[in-house]
Each structure stands twice: as C-alpha cells, then as structure tokens.
Write a structure and sequence with these properties.
InterPro entries: AAA+_ATPase, ABC_transporter-like_ATP-bd, ABC_transporter-like_CS, ABC_transpr_LolD-like, MacB-like_ATP-bd, P-loop_NTPase. The chain is 31% helix and 26% strand. The chain is of the alpha/beta class. It has a domain of 170 residues: Rossmann fold, CATH 3.40.50.300. It has a 6-stranded mixed β-sheet, with helices on both faces. Strands 2-1-4-5 form a 4-stranded antiparallel β-sheet, with helices on one face. Strand 4 and strand 5 form a beta hairpin. Helix 3 packs across helix 4. The protein is globular, with a radius of gyration of 18 Å. The N and C termini lie close together (8 Å). Bound molecules: adenosine-5'-triphosphate (ATP). The site of adenosine-5'-triphosphate has 10 residues, from helix 1.
C-alpha cells in the first residue's frame, strides 16, 4: 500500500562517528497508560530510525498511537520501556531540565491548530520564541522578519493571527518552529486544518526545509498528499509497526 522504504533499527548505528547518521532512533518503545487499576498498552515495542534530512511520516488509524509515539520521540513524554536517541543523545536518560534545554535548542514543533498567541503579530509570535532562545531586541526582530520572508509572509509581519488565513497561520507556525535553526522538526497533522491549496504550500515548505536546510522532519499525518514528498512512511496499527 505504501511504496516507501522503511528502515529498521538493526540497520543502523547510533554512533555518529561511524557512517550512519540516524537523527532519530527509537529502541523497544513501550507505553502504557493507567486508568484506575487498569493498564492500557498503547505502544507495544517500536523500533525505528530516521536519517538526517529525511521526511519521515507516521501514519495509521485513529487511536493507533501516532501522537503518543511522536510525543515520546520529542521528549515530551517518557516511555514506560525503551530508549530514544536524538542526534546521538539518549534523551530518555536526561533530567527534566536538560531535556527542556535540549528540546528548545534542537527541536521545532508544528501543531495542527497552529498554537499562535492571538494578541501578538506574526513577527512577535516568532520573537517570543527567539527571546526564549536568547536572541533579543533588534536582532530578534530582524531574524523574525527573515523567517517570515522564508515562508513567503514578509508582508504579513505586523498582522495578528485573526487577520491571517489558516494556511498563512500555519506558515507563521513553521517560521516560528524554525527560529534558532533546530535540526529536527516534529509536526502533528500540520495540514489537517488547511484547504487543499494551503496544504500544498505547507507541504512544499516542509519538503524544502528538509532538502535545502537539512532539517529532519518527523510528521504525524492522515494526509495522503504528503506521501509524495516523504522519504519513508511508518504505518502504525494497534501500537505496533505494521509489517510490509
Ligand atoms: N494521556 C493519556 N492517558 C490515557 N490514555 C491516553 C493518553 N494519551 C493517549 N491515550 C490513548 O492512547 C491511544 C492512542 O492515542 P494517540 O493519540 O497516540 O493515537 P493517534 O494514532 O494519534 O490517534 P488520532 O489519529 O486520532 O490522533 C488512544 O486510545 C488514546 O485514548
């Protein structure tokens, strides 16, 4: 069904000095949620590797565990069992504060519902993130403007989210995710709320980021159009990677 190749964890090394350059590696990920005295196993042993500069899709039916897996790979949630390496660092071993710093420096996030601050302009939405990353004042302003130009929104810098279309809002969110040059972009259904034309622009932008900027993009999606630009697709079913 999915013509893309799928790489398995046994074909790589997490050692960045030896050939393979997997940016994201997961080994034996299991996740169980507790409800009262019941335990519900959402992920049942996930191994995967995403190479540097690749666009990797996570697809599968609703409830199959895609968002849970993305959250674990992004270090937003600790797995019950298993290890996650990002850029060679085992993030499942990091303290909360080191993990927060790591995420801030290395990962840009894009969500389905944009998550922009409604009271701030497009440029200010990006400046806030740059400020957190230590870039302030005029420098932050000019970087925010540059990022907006990169996503084709140079003229919308002073507009607030309410004055932007869905596609424009998502491009602001992408510009914000790029603030500080993260090596990894994690996106959860970035085109789900967009019409077909805006969705296309966002997909093209993500493709360009991966291929021209060398970002590694991991994306949960139901959008079949994105398969065309993906390097690899993992299909989850009932908490497991569906085989061939
Ligand atoms: N914090 C949580 N506590 C308890 N159960 C959870 C929690 N988060 C997710 N789940 C359950 O885990 C299962 C997988 O959820 P998840 O959101 O990862 O699936 P998904 O494949 O992303 O689904 P969708 O495509 O609908 O977004 C679901 O049954 C969900 O109810």
């Amino acid at each position: 069904m999915f013509p893309k190749r799928r790489r398995q964890v046994d074909s790589l090394s997490t050692d960045f000095n030896h050939g393979e350059t997997a940016t994201i590696v997961a080994e034996g990920i299991e996740m169980a949620f507790r409800s009262g005295n019941q335990s519900y196993q959402v992920l049942k042993g996930i191994d995967l590797a995403v190479q540097s500069g690749d666009i990797q899709l996570l697809m599968g039916p609703s409830g199959s565990g895609k968002t849970t897996l993305l959250s674990i790979l992004a270090g937003l949630m600790k797995p019950t069992v298993g290890k996650v390496y990002l850029l060679g660092e085992e993030i499942t071993r990091l303290s909360q504060s080191k993990l927060t710093t790591f995420r801030r420096e290395k990962i840009g996030f894009i969500f389905q519902n944009f998550n922009l601050f409604p009271a701030l302009t497009a440029a200010e939405n990006i400046e806030v993130v740059l400020n957190i990353k230590g870039v302030k004042g005029v420098k932050a302003r000019s970087q925010a403007q540059g990022l907006l130009e990169q996503v084709g929104l140079g003229l919308q810098a002073n507009q607030k989210p309410a004055d932007l279309s869905g596609g424009q809002k998502q491009r602001v969110a992408i510009a914000r995710a790029l603030a500080g040059h993260p090596r990894i972009i994690m996106a959860d259904e970035p085109t789900a709320a967009l019409d077909s034309q805006s969705g296309h622009k966002v997909i093209e932008l993500l493709r360009r980021l991966a291929k021209e900027e060398g970002c590694t993009v991991l994306m949960v999606t139901h959008d079949p159009r994105i398969i065309d630009v993906a390097d690899s697709v993992i299909y989850l079913e009932d908490g497991m990677i569906k085989e061939g």
